[in-house]
Amino acid sequence: MMGPGTGPGFPLPMDRGMMGGAMGGGMMGGPGLSGPGPSRPGSIGRRGGLHGPAGALFLSMDITAYYRSRMLYRAAAVVSPFVVAGLAALFLFLLASNLRHRRRAQEQETLARLGESARTLAHEIRNPLGAIRIQTGLLRRKLPGEASAQLDAIEEEVQRLSLLSRRVSDFLKNPRGDPKGILLDGFLRELAARQPIRVSYCASKEAQGATVIMDAELLRSVVENLVRNAHESYPDGEGDVEVVLSRERGSAVIAVRDWGKGIPPELLEKVFDPFFTDKVHGSGVGLSLSRRFVEAAGGTLTLLRRGSGGTEARITLPAGGAR
What we know:
By secondary structure, the protein is an alpha+beta fold. The chain is built from six helices and seven strands, in the order αααβαββαββαββ. It has two domains: about 65-170; about 180-320, Heat Shock Protein 90, CATH 3.30.565. The radius of gyration is 45 Å and the shape is elongated.
């Protein structure tokens, strides 16, 4: 083992100021180094030997690059979550936009199919309605006056069907029809009384003054279609249908309820597809048209499975009037 000052020197980075101080005035008040002389343990000489007080060692290191990389890492750690969140938000926005475009394309296709169906139905209905009008006129001449009320009812219904066929034909051009204010309580009470099947009607106290803005004939068509579907849900064709008017916040709710066989869960939305039906003699356009009429008035039409059995059809429309 070599003694201090006798072995080869080892170069170490040193601070020039510290070196100058050590050489000029020494360390800790000791004598400076002015030239070659005997080596002193613990210090560094000009040629790399150890000189000065024992245990005093000064190193100078450049750590700028280290701190720069560390700051970049910290900045990346802070920014990365925001970048990931922004990319996720962009992905969700693009996904929602794509779904909207697909839904619109499907709606356009549905409307085209409904338009063709509407034209076909209007043409097929118009001819038999004309024949019914002629036969009603002939019966009015031959039957006694007591039958006048029944004939008036037939003519009124024929007139309504004729008007409805025209409305269906114009559905694509103007699904809103001729919207006017309707006092729902009186409208539904009269409608329930005119049905050929048993229909019970009731309204909550806060809904009795509710009014909606919708074409009266279109609303009549929607409710009657739902009542007819409810009646046909009974296997034997016998059963009561209940129409309930209530109010929820700013909306009026018309519920048509039955206790029939109900609708399978997987068909609750599919039944609104045009031309879809599980009935032998059904056309599959009634519920589709009904939903479109209600949505054109700013409302919704949904079907719900009842816990006690059967189905509830809910029409929700923006309402005004006293609460």
